[in-house]
Amino acid sequence: MKFLSALTIALSFVPLSARAQGKLNVITTTEDLASIAREVAGDRASIESLARGYQDPHYVEPKPSFILKLQKADVLVVVGRELELGWLPPLIQQSRNGRIQPGADGYLDASLHAEILEVPQGQITRAMGDVHPLGNPHYWLDPENGKRIAKDEAEKFAQLRPNDRAYFEQRLADFTTRLDAAQKRWLGMMAPYRGTKVVTYHRSFPNFARRFGLDIIGYVEPRPGIPPTPQHTLDLINEMKRQNVKLILVEPYFDLKTPNSIARGTGGMVLVMPPSVGGVKDVTDYFKLFDYDIDLLITAIKKTTTSTGP
Amino acid sequence: MRSMRVVCASAVAVGLLMTGSRAAAQDAQALRQEIDQLRRDFETLKQQYGDRLTALEAKLAVAQGTPPAQPGAAQPTAPVPPGAEGAGGPTGALPVYGGAVSGSKVFNPDIAVIGDFLGAVGKNDLHPDPFGPGPFPSALQMHESEASFQAVVDPYARGDFFMSFGQEGVELEEGYVTFTSLPGGLLTKVGKIRGAFGKVNAMHNHVLPWTDRPLVTNNLVGGEDGISDAAISVARLIPNPWLFLEATGQVFRGDAGPEDQPLFRAAKRSDLSYVGHLRGYHDITENSNLDFGFSYAHGHNTSGEADIVERGRFTTSLSGVDATFRWRPLQRSIYHSFVGRTEWIWSRRDQPNGLQSGSGLYVSGDYQFARRWFAGARLDRSNRADDALLVDTGGSVVLTFWPSEFSQVRGQFRRTNYADAPSANEFLFQFQFSIGAHGAHPF
Question: pTM score, two decimals?
Fold first, then answer.
């Protein structure tokens, strides 16, 4: 055993010194993490996401082609909070890559410093649906968390490429400044509409809603991961009517049948709102994600208030 | 306890007396002495009781197998809640119970249990137990409860155990260590492993797309038990610019298949069995992919077992080809999908009466037509391993409903035409449910 570990250590040193020169090979689980990584790593890393932005990140197929990508990765950045629980562990296991095993230097859980909402209190059971015991994993939809993710990623890249530390730190500072400015603009745009009540399909938007002042009053899913039922849909329509809620936000990967019938029942409007970079064609980076979503929201709010307003 | 009460009562009585008639100054001195004496008695008694309690606790702890608390050992403490201090409440730091114990729970493995209940309606003369080789008729059965324990062992390995509580008792279905980061890109497993022969042999019951296993698996590859044995398995990716290619080599102790109709059986230590598997995978588009494999297995069979000289002389070789086509549109991946699969297996079984060359196959398709609904069909055909002249054929249609990700209800209509018994028409149904840690989705 001693000989074996000595051999492992010896062998792992050889490629390490060779790798230290080249570009960092970064694999992320989602396109949001990839987009932020591109901001901080610039041309010093090649970055690729396993899941596409228009895909439900809970249900990604663990394709063997992903194993090939993970095999060569220097860094694996994951959303964490058990979002990838159903598909990532077997891929990491089969990657034959000791650098990215959980706990190793190349494994980064981006949620560790982020503000996490909806951490369940008290006893939880699966009767509540597919609850995430570690809190809501859709935390990247708040620019403040975007900054935290960027900071963790920059730190990780600098740890693995110490020579480029200054470069990563400078890019991080630049990203943070631009994101702060953009956030100020987004908050300004949303300011007149703070408190707007909406319904969402899945619990994908709590961080977004909190940052930009939306009030989520219900969900199309009766419980996380459980498809809509007629009774729940009826209750939701009644509640929306009672509170005069007109907007139904739906992630691009959900069926629109039930949301459309809710819209018909309430005189409301369905918005296909991407929670991720790549969720729709025009959203190609982390900034455009908020640009797109906020534009979409404001246009819809204006439309629904002029058509139903006094 | 009773004497403690007596002491307390007398203390109170003395207190009352003190405030009563004997308030005179000369009596005060005597009274104080009396109280002091009482207090000393009380303290001694308290001390005695305390010591006896501690001794008892220590005895109890020894009896339960835990060491007694060491005086002076660092105990985790917590501050007294604000407001409670001084007002007759405790002072100083409070001990925290269970802290060390709950910390160790972090390293407990992920535990899950999957229940598999099966039922059958209809007549089957050849296989009265519709899901196994057993001779007993069985309309309803708690076929299997599979308990899994999975965790990381250390920075170099992880451990996986799957215990199957079945009709005939408990069995280790699989239990192995996986070395995740060996040099040379080798993925090595050591333990009891389901062999990498084709697709169905490696599948646990709960990930099968049917309630049963195909005819060819039952006739040629050892049925539900299959090639599953103590083994060392090594898998390596073969680098190439076109596709995912993985070669697996496995060495087994040499026993496979059910007890009464084994596929392989080792008569001596050197009668090992071997499995080789080459898997290719290619993404056709982002929505569809092709997965294919070539398998080979070799081991000693039980024919000629009656003759002490011939024992272990005869061998069985299996070759197989499998292909799986998957379609799943990424953006609607939770609503629609299609999986088509097929396996062709050739068996060469050497026996005292000559070589038996048989073959078999299944072709199946499963279409997901709604978020929780799947419909499928399967065609079966297979020779018998020990008599290649006999051919069984069959067909099934399957409907599956998932109330949630953690449960499943399935119905299957199966017709089987046996070579040497009347055809059987059966309706099979299944309830499956899982509790505990969220496992990975099957692929």
Answer: 0.81
In terms of phi and psi (left: phi > 0; alpha: psi -120 to 50; beta: otherwise), the region of B252 is beta
Contact with chain A for residue B59, Cβ under 8 A = no
- Ordered by where they begin, the domains of chain A are 18-184 (3.40.50.1980), 185-305 (3.40.50.1980)
Strands (E), B155-272: 157-166, 169-179, 186-194, 228-237, 244-252
Secondary structure letter of residue B221 according to DSSP: S
The domain over range B105-436 is classified in CATH as 3.40.50.620: no
Check CB contact of B185 with chain A, cutoff 8 Å. Answer: yes
- Asked if A103 and B438 come within 8 Å (Cβ–Cβ), the reply is no
Among A8, A54, A59, whose Cβ lies nearest the Cβ of B334? A59
- Smallest CA–CA distance, residue A86 to chain B, in Å, is 4
Q: For residue range A193-210, what is the model confidence (pLDDT) as tens digits? A: 999 999 999 999 999 999
Bridge partners, residue B348, by sequence: B317, B357
Residues sharing a CB contact under 8 Å with residue B162, sequence separation 6 or more, in sequence order = B146, B147, B148, B172, B173, B174, B175, B204
CB A250 within 8 A of CB A274: no
Is the per-residue pLDDT at B303 higher than 80? yes
Ramachandran angles phi, psi of A294, nearest 5°:
-70, -40
Q: Kindly determine whether residue B443 and residue A61, on different chains, have CB atoms separated by under 8 Å.
A: yes
- Nearest CA to CA, how far is B239 from chain A (Å)? 9
Taking the C-alpha atoms of residue B59 and residue B94, their distance in angstroms, rounded to an integer, is 24
| Paired residues of A162 in beta bridges | none
Please give the ipTM for the structure prediction: 0.88
Residue boundaries of the structural domains of chain B:
1-57, 105-436
Residue A205 and residue A290 in contact, taking contact as beta carbons nearer than 8 Å: no
Q: Which of B155, B187, B283 sits opposite A103 (nearest CB)?
A: B155
Cα separation, A50 vs A27, in Å, equals 7
